[in-house]
């Protein structure tokens, strides 16, 4: 805001209006999500933050009960609910719109329940209004309202078909903002919306569709954290040969989970150890005979670790750092209590015992390496090594443990890593994968 000490009164309010092309009406089925996406990007650009908070207003005339007939009532009931969105770093309009769509899709009855809960439980912590309220009406007739007192919002953005024109009105207080600031926001919004409309509907590959439904703050994740009582989770997403996003949700020992919070991943460690074994085999240091193949396909990785240490004459943690972690940039991965103590300010203690301490971002680097090596562009593995790992021909590769999951599609190049610190980590992961329509796609031997 331009005048932080000003009084946000109705008497000082005025409106900036932008009239939009009627072609918007051709997108009526998705216009609300496009409008919200454009507004979110506009506000993110203005504040310099990827997280955007908006209060969404709707008419409130939701058919909640079969025995309640609203047809004989006139006017709006009005409901307002909060929307919290974290936009992706890349300026991908399709992904941004999909993130907004996912949030709106998971809001039951257009958020009317939020206001009902606030009314029925006034003693509970009330929702503090966001700085911006957005309201979309498909049709309306413009009316002038005279109000007094303090406005609850800094910016009140209303989009509607008014008297035959599609308008977006930005109402603000001249005590809080300069006209030039709001005019710039309104123009940026129009430019953003025009770009979204020009982008059209992307072609979605089924095995990559989950990428647009998994993002920081996604309702599909947060709802399941509560359902399965998982304190915290770390997630990384892989696409097109790179880690495109990594973030944390929830808490670890009362501290918010960050992208660099380390989790212990139990038997999923074996998946990473396999990379070291295959690298040594590729370099002729280790014989990948039938016995070693059986060990890599089994669950006696304590013996595998000892054989690798004997082959190179280094303690296992050191050889892993030299052969895998350092080449792949896995800066937050290690073994044992000494490593855990070095990350004491960002460690997620969970039910998994033993094995690797790591982050979702670091484990995603393993997935990226396997994908690159499949086309002979790896730094640790080559195509021969990947063929040994995927000898049975799975098109998805990775591993699952009680609390962790990693899987990436060899054909689609899309994957996800999920680490949890809860007793029901496996149930949480399975539930989330079903919701994302990804399915459990992990070979038990890789």
Task: Give a description of the structure.
The protein is α+β, with helices and mostly antiparallel strands and 446 residues long. It folds into 2 domains: 190 residues, Nonribosomal peptide synthetase, condensation domain (Chloramphenicol Acetyltransferase), CATH 3.30.559.30; 230 residues, Beta-lactamase (3-Layer(aba) Sandwich), CATH 3.40.710.10. It contains 13 helices and 15 strands. The strands form 3 sheets. The chain has a 6-stranded mixed β-sheet with strand order 1-6-5-4-2-3. It has a 6-stranded antiparallel β-sheet with strand order 9-8-7-15-14-13. A hairpin with a 3-residue loop joins strand 13 and strand 14. Helix 6 crosses helix 9. The C terminus is likely disordered.
Keywords:
446 residues; alpha+beta; Chloramphenicol Acetyltransferase; Beta-lactamase; 2 domains; six-stranded antiparallel sheet; elongated; disordered C terminus
Order of helices and strands: EHEEHHEEEHHEEEEHHHHHEEHHEEEH
What general form does the structure show? elongated
Number of strands: 15
Task: Please describe the biggest sheet, giving its number of strands, its sense, and whether it closes into a barrel.
Answer: 6 strands, mixed
Tell me the CATH superfamily of the largest domain: DD-peptidase/beta-lactamase superfamily
Number of helices: 13
Structural class: alpha+beta
């Amino acid at each position: 805001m331009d005048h932080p000490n000003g009084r946000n009164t109705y008497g000082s309010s005025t409106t900036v209006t932008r009239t939009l092309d009627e072609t918007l009406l051709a997108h009526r089925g998705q216009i609300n999500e496009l409008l919200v996406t454009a507004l979110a990007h506009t506000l993110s650009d203005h504040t310099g933050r990827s997280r955007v908070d908006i209060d969404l207003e709707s008419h409130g005339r939701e058919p909640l009960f079969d025995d309640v007939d609203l047809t004989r009532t006139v006017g709006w009931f009005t409901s307002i609910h909060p929307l919290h969105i974290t936009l992706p770093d890349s300026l991908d309009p399709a992904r941004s719109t999909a993130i907004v769509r996912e949030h709106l899709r998971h809001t039951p009855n257009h958020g009317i329940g939020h206001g009902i809960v606030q009314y029925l439980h006034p003693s509970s912590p009330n929702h503090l209004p966001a700085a911006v309220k957005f309201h979309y009406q498909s049709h309306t007739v413009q009316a002038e309202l005279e109000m007094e007192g303090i406005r609850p919002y800094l910016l009140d953005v209303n989009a509607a078909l008014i008297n035959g024109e599609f308008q977006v009105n930005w109402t603000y207080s001249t005590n809080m903002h300069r006209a030039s600031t709001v005019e710039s926001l309104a123009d940026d919004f129009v430019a953003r919306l025009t770009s979204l409309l020009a982008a059209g509907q992307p072609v979605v590959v089924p095995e990559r569709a989950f990428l647009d439904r998994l993002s920081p703050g996604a309702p599909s994740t947060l709802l399941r954290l509560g359902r399965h009582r998982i304190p915290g989770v770390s997630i990384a997403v892989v696409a097109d040969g790179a880690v495109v996003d990594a973030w944390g949700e929830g808490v670890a020992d009362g501290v918010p989970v960050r992208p660099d919070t380390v989790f212990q991943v139990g038997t999923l460690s074996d998946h990473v150890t396999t990379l070291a074994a295959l690298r040594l085999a590729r370099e002729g240091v280790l014989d990948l005979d039938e016995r070693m193949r059986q060990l890599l396909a089994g669950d006696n990785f304590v013996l595998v670790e000892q054989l690798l240490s004997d082959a190179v004459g280094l303690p296992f943690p050191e050889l892993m750092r030299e052969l895998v972690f350092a080449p792949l940039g896995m800066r937050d991965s290690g073994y044992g209590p000494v490593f855990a103590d070095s990350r004491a300010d960002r460690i997620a203690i969970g039910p998994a015992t033993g094995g690797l301490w790591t982050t979702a971002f670091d484990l995603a680097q393993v997935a990226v390496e396997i994908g690159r090596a499949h086309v002979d562009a790896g730094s640790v593995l080559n195509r021969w090594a990947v063929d040994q790992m995927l000898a049975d021909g799975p098109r998805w590769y990775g591993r699952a443990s009680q609390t962790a999951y990693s899987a990436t599609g060899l054909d689609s190049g899309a994957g996800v890593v999920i680490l949890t610190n809860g007793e029901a980590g496996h149930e949480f992961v399975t539930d989330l994968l079903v919701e994302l329509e990804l399915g459990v796609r992990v070979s038990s031997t890789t």
